[in-house]
Amino acid sequence: QILAGPHRCLSIRYLDMNRRTIVGDPSVFAVESRITRAYERLSFRAIGYFVIHVSGRRYGMHLPEASMLACSFDSVARRIAHRGQHAAPFVSELDAGLIADAVRRALYADGEERELFWGIPRAEFSNLIYSKDIIWAPDGDEAFDDHSYVLQFDVKDRVRLIAFRSSEAGCSYARTTLSDVWLPADDFYKAL
Hints:
Elements: E1 12-15, E2 20-25, E3 29-38, E4 46-54, E5 57-59, E6 67-68, H1 70-81, H2 96-108, E7 116-117, E8 120-121, H3 122-131, E9 135-137, E10 148-155, E11 158-165, E12 179-184, H4 185-191
Antiparallel strand pairs: 1-2, 2-3, 3-4, 4-5, 4-6, 7-8, 9-10, 10-11, 11-12
């Protein structure tokens, strides 16, 4: 079934008797979740998994009881509510690897407080990452305990997703895990 438009990333499939849901095309962008057990308590919602597919790679723990799902589901709702606000002045022309390194270094590395990121002081750069809710994953639960990061940038009528796993040592990313995709904003937000 196609939700809207000619874009492959808008297909929706239900598998495992509606227990596992994939929205989108995993080779481009998709979200996948599975509820193993639901709860009445809103702060729990359910236990299961929530993963994000970017450029054919899966980010997140793909296990039946990986995480409580409230944080992941709430994060999606916040992304929709703040459509167009996940913006940063440096994102359009820069290499995805440079952005991944800068985000990890600014937030987690010990270093010069006077360090600049594309002319932006470190404290201001870190504040921009947090205040614009650039980091989609990790989202606060165990869903992304595989060291995955998914960064979302709204750039006019498009969305750029940069996804990677942090490296075992230091504050950089594992080079072989980097994905970078640009999508029409309407397609991205419809998939959510």
